[in-house]
Specification:
Radius of gyration: 21 Å
Number of helices: 6
Distance between the termini: 64 Å
Structural class: mainly alpha
Strand content: under 5%
Largest sheet: 2 strands, antiparallel
Strand order of the largest sheet: 1-2
Helix content: over 70%
């Protein structure tokens, strides 16, 4: 619909479309910010509760907070071994993320990245529950609910010590 104001036209359909797109982008950014803050709270408190005080601060740094996730899921027992293991998985994670931009090879890298993330959340749920069956169920629930289950369960368990190593 065109409306004339003096010598100029206003295209209301395009303005409505742009307002809708801008509203969607703002909603998505707010949702992403809330998700980031909640995951940082969960990772930081879980790390502090389970003796990873040195690396808990990394939970609040965007992109680098994946290092804390990999430290939380490590099977190692000493802090230097855990840091080494977390660094190894973090470099693999970022390497796969970069390679996933390459056309054909990227598809395989994206699948490997997805498997790594699923395994990471499985290990985190396993360490919280101490039960493999529950951990698998919780990963499935996390993906069915679009990640909401992780935030709800993580906020409930972030102050509890790990039940399994």
């Amino acid at each position: 619909m065109n409306v004339q104001y003096g010598n100029e036209y206003a295209y209301l359909d395009m303005a409505a479309l742009m307002a809708f797109v801008l509203g969607f982008i703002v909603f998505f950014l707010i949702f992403a910010l809330i998700a980031y803050i909640l995951s940082a709270i969960i990772f930081s408190n879980t790390a502090n509760t389970n003796g990873f005080n040195e690396i808990a601060v990394f939970s609040w740094i965007p992109i680098i907070n994946i290092y804390v996730l990999f430290a939380l899921i490590s099977k190692k027992t000493t802090i230097p071994e855990i840091k080494s293991d977390a660094l190894k998985y973090t470099l693999i994670y970022f390497g796969l993320a970069i390679v996933s931009a390459i056309p054909v090879l990227g598809f395989l890298a994206a699948i490997a990245l997805m498997v790594l993330v699923i395994y990471s959340f499985y290990r985190l749920f396993y360490r919280w529950t101490g039960d493999q069956t529950k951990a698998i169920l919780f990963v499935i629930l996390m993906y069915i609910t679009g990640g909401i289950f992780f935030y709800v369960y993580g906020l409930m368990k972030m102050k509890d010590r790990f039940m399994a190593w």
